[in-house]
Design brief:
It catalyses: (S)-2,3,4,5-tetrahydrodipicolinate + NADP(+) + H2O = (2S,4S)-4-hydroxy-2,3,4,5-tetrahydrodipicolinate + NADPH + H(+); (S)-2,3,4,5-tetrahydrodipicolinate + NAD(+) + H2O = (2S,4S)-4-hydroxy-2,3,4,5-tetrahydrodipicolinate + NADH + H(+). The protein has 268 residues and is an alpha/beta fold. The protein is built from nine helices and 13 strands. The protein has an eight-stranded mixed sheet with strand order 3-4-2-1-5-6-7-13, with helices on both faces. It binds nicotinamide-adenine-dinucleotide and ligand LLHOTIJI.
């Protein structure tokens, strides 16, 4: 019997790609699925439940994976932990404070949670390269592009990156924000110490770019997502395989792949 996976948001763009990924993997088994509108229907050989609590009480899942909605993810994750199930979080929109609560609950339950603003390998490399650059170049800002209908801001990718860059090296504006002449919002938002400018326009899926600058030179590190959800499947399933052996919260796929950066370990 393989590792038993329950997927929240199983009918969605990412969730449906994951259902296929789980079914194609010899070491994984689709144990449950959650999607409110499709409740009662069948997906990938399992009956879709209306809530995480219903799905997990009807199965003996080892891991719950959430790709639902920013308004639903926190309650879903806390429910799964209360029910004794390890969690992988793909859904965006949770604050640092929300993650603090999840971390405390995971510790209390002795369970693992892996969350990553972006589970694609190349986005995770963009994050890691940016963290390395911030150790050397103190001046940077983050551009966060997504489709016009994305409800959460910044994206999960940009938020996690901003918080992590901010811990290594807070982004310090050349003119302090309270001394700016004009609308302060035009200078973006301080997200955990990293400065983020979010752009929401049709035709973007998701792109995140960090601009590092020194006198006379610039480094731009950019990730651009395509229109398929396929890139998120491998990283999410890697996290599902690893999370059952963990206790507590790990944020960032790069930490699973490459270990914790010394600069981040020092500041934790
Ligand atoms: N971390 C990553 O790598 C990554 C990758 C892709 C998407 N995402 C994030 O995942 C989330 C989902 O994205 P998507 O494009 O797959 O969305 P989607 O709208 O295509 O699918 C969402 C799914 O969740 C269900 N759902 C919606 N609201 C719900 C609620 N309140 N309770 C329970 N289920 C609900 C829907 O029925 C659907 O099945 C977003 O936050 C997105 O930013 C993250
Ligand atoms: O399509 C989305 O929405 C995505 N959201 C993630 C985010 O918020 O960073 C990343 C992948 C696509």
């Amino acid at each position: 019997m393989g590792l038993r996976i329950c997927i929240g948001g199983a009918t969605g763009w990412t969730g449906s790609a994951l259902v296929n990924g789980v079914r194609a993997a010899a070491d994984l088994e689709l144990a449950g699925a959650v999607a409110r509108k499709a409740a009662g229907q069948e997906i990938g050989g399992v009956k879709v439940a209306a809530s995480v609590a219903d799905a997990l009480s009807a199965t003996n899942a080892d891991v719950y994976i959430d790709y639902t909605h920013p308004s639903a993810v926190k309650a879903n994750v806390l429910t799964a932990l209360d029910m004794g199930v390890a969690v992988v979080v793909g859904t965006s929109g949770m604050s640092a404070g929300d993650y603090g609560e999840i971390s405390a609950k995971a510790d209390k339950q002795g369970l693992g949670v892996v969350a990553s603003g972006n589970f694609s390998l190349t986005a995770c490399l963009m994050t890691r390269f940016s963290l390395l650059a911030a150790e050397q170049v103190p001046d940077y800002e983050i551009l966060d592009y997504a489709k016009s209908t994305k409800p959460d801001v910044p994206s999960g990718t940009a938020q996690e990156l901003a918080e992590r860059l901010g811990r290594i090296q807070p982004s310090v504006p050349g003119v302090p924000i309270d001394k700016i002449i004009g609308p302060k919002e035009a200078r973006g938002a301080d997200v955990g110490g990293g400065r983020v400018h979010s752009i929401r326009l049709p035709s973007y899926v998701l792109a995140v770019e960090t601009i590092f600058a020194m006198n006379g030179e610039r480094l731009q590190i950019r990730h651009e997502a395509g229109s398929s959800a396929e890139p998120y499947v491998g990283g999410t399933l890697l996290a599902a395989r690893r999370v059952v052996a963990l206790k507590g919260l790990v944020r960032g796929l790069d930490n699973l792949l490459f270990g914790t950066l010394p600069a981040e370990a020092k500041k934790a």
